[in-house]
UniProtKB/TrEMBL annotation:
Name listed for the protein in its UniProt record: Unannotated protein
InterPro entries: H2TH_FPG (IPR015886), Ribosomal_uS13-like_H2TH (IPR010979), Znf_DNA_glyclase/AP_lyase (IPR000214)
Biological classification of the source: unclassified sequences, metagenomes, ecological metagenomes
A Pfam family annotated for this UniProt entry: H2TH
UniProt source species: freshwater metagenome
GO process annotations (BP): base-excision repair
Domain FPG-type, first and last residues per copy: 129-163
Amino acid sequence: MCEVITDDEMATAITRIGPDPIHKGADPVRAWDRVHRSAAPIGALLMDQKIFAGVGNIYRAEVLFRHQISPFTHGRVISNKQFDAIWSDLVSLMTLGVKNGRIDTVRAVHLPEVMGREPRVDRHGGEVYVYRREGMKCFVCGAKIKMADMQGRKLYWCAKCQVG
């Protein structure tokens, strides 16, 4: 069912969600204010649409891997520098994902043609570090990628690389 809403209703709805990294006017300070005061794990906070709008399971797993941050790290332990790096990376990765119509998160040094490995074959497409790679070797350290449940969603990470 689709419902037409007024501009005022739209404005009210938007106040209930966090900043969207691909929205030009997004204010990351709104998300930071919630993250740095929270005892919840950053892996859960990234999926909370009241804190970050639009960050889904793939970007959550990948951005934390790219910054070597454990998804179990409490929000209040995340430094401002780490948060800024996460936000900046989300802006870049999500913008690129929209432009290309697929999610690619691996850096050039880890592309299949550089590493001499087969490209990823998955219905989601795109080259990723940890998402849906449970039990496979990490491209960086060789450890096996882990998978667990976090708030009803599958969570992927490398326990050796993501210690911070």
